[in-house]
Amino acid sequence: MELVNVSKYFGAAAALNEIDLQIASGRTTVLIGPSGCGKSTLLRLMIGLIEPDTGTVYFEGVEVTAAHVLQLRQRMGYVIQDGGLFPHLTARRNVALMAGYLGWEDERIEVRLAELAELTRFPIDGLQRFPAQLSGGQRQRVGLMRALMLDPEVLLLDEPLGALDPMVRAELQEDLKAIFQKLGKTVLLVTHDMGEAGFFGDVIVMLREGAIVQQGTFEQLVQSPADEFVARFINAQRSPLGEVRT
Amino acid sequence: MMRGVCGLVFLCMLTTVVGGQEAQIKVGSKKFTESVVLGEVVKHVVESTGRAVEHKAEMGGTRVLWNALLKGEIDVYPEYSGTISQEILAGEKVETVAEMRRVLAARGIGMSPPLGFNNTYAIGMRQALAAQLGVERIADLRRHPQLRFGFSNEFMDRGDGWPSLRDFYGLPQQEVRGLDHDLAYRGLESGTLDAIDLYSTDAEIRYYDLRVLQDDQGHFSTYNAVLVYRAELAQQAPTLVAALHRLGGRISEADMIQMNARVKLDKVAESQVAADFLEKHFSIETQVQVEGAVERVVRHVQEHLYMVAVSLLAAIVIAVPLGIAAARMPQFGQIILAIVGVIQTIPSLALLVFMIPLLGVGGPPAIAALFLYSLLPIVRNTYAGLHDIPPSIREAAAALGLPPGVRLRLVELPMASRAILAGVKTSTVINVGTATLGAFIGAGGLGQLIMTGIRLDDMGLIMQGAVPAALLALLAQGLFEWAERAIVPKGLRLQGETV
Question: Which domain holds residue B178?
């Protein structure tokens, strides 16, 4: 996936300003930055929920346009903060909605559901529950299953762990990382948490006010921050626990 | 019973199509007892000539009946010469009966000879109060500006009504109210009104012991009862018209007061009173079918439900797509919401009356008005239900790659179902209640029983209309609570409970 000279304005303000970015295939890229830096906007551009004002978004060499965005979305999985589950459908129907629309046979759907439940460590009998009957962590697992149902090439996650309490969050972090490694898909994850970025990211892209300030590995960002802002951002999120241990 | 009626209607339609000549005759009457009695007299006379006949009783006021006659929705109805000259032909300056005939004929309307009694307007007071104040003539009212008047709505704004009476006699009273004629008697009796307008053949004059004030300076014109009918009848059914004309000069003022009194005071059905009169004076034997109370309620409930069902179904079919369009296209949406909002602010009775020039009288205009009334709650709730879906859910559906139409069907409409259903429920309850007003323009329904009950001062009859109407509204409520369980997805109902 690639963005070439992409800008996006909301009113007069630029949410993204002439961004060029290539996402490495088969690896996990983390977009990080303070609130309003444009990281979620970038993710929504990728899946065509919004269109760029200038520049082009490419997916597998194809320009993402309104004409074929629906087809392209079937090759991308998208997970948002609170799961974005449809409250009127059971977990099973949430996950299988798109496959059902595409005319998958029941048997194929069942096989895929079982695979995904095992992969995401979601109890299979929880599938007939409604979102309101699931815990926050479980909802997020269902959201992930839904994103993975069609076995997409790319997985886009917008602060997938943002709404969870620390214990659940830690557990799900481990599971997510294992899943990413096992599947070897191209993953693009948005977070504002530096620890989480370091935990997941093969590559970390830091944004500020709609522009990329630095990209590299976690070590590169920590050891040689590109500017004062990067250093402050990293320092601001350093855990006191780390200091106690050293 | 129903099958019999259906069969009859079918037969009539058949003969209309095949023969053309033997079309069913439709008699109309206004919404007061004398008119209904005369309507029944006409009905029996038509029957005696062997024609099929239907009496559309209590259709409304002069305007409604006159328009229905012009449009051919009815063939004949009883009218008064004063009403024709003062109201229907106001501005034409008809002075003589011959002139009136000529002007009516130009409109395709024929008129029978006067039936024999003059039912003019008069002003009445309680004997006791009139005696105490020494009021005998209308002119005497000038000396008592504190008196409270209650006039029938028609009298309030007709050409020879209150405004001209006030100017003619120089009356000073300020407290003047418009209300239903039948309620006016009760206001007079309870002492909340001091003087009301009367018809000189009203049965109540004697019953309530009223003093009829002398029209000493001759303000009121004469109101000779006549029958007006479509002039085409003279060619199509000459024997029928001849039979109607034979009623001329045969109903005296005493006859009419007595017939009115039998209906209003002795609670005898109009049909029976009319039949007795015809048997006595014309030796016409008629079979009177008096409907039982249960049959009558069932028939009116059926009429009521028909109006509600047709108007509501049409409203759902139109309003839900309008609500969807409003949610999809915000600018267009504001216009839609504004328009249906304005419709809702039109008083229901006014809306019903607006429909008459467009759709005539009876069921169609009532259904059209109810349809318009039912739009707003459904449009607004559909719009709100769709609009209130969290953007994250909407985006999640889009991000799956579902096309917009499928998102609407599988995600957005189910999520808005509770709001939409609540809108339909509100519409239904409003509709069931408003449908009672349909009786004012001849659409029948439970309002007819209420109206007739008020006219005859028959609390039992009012209840026969009011109780089923209230029960229908409750039933609709219950039905929708059940429907909510069946239609609103379980996941949404859970949300309310557990989170």
Answer: 121-212
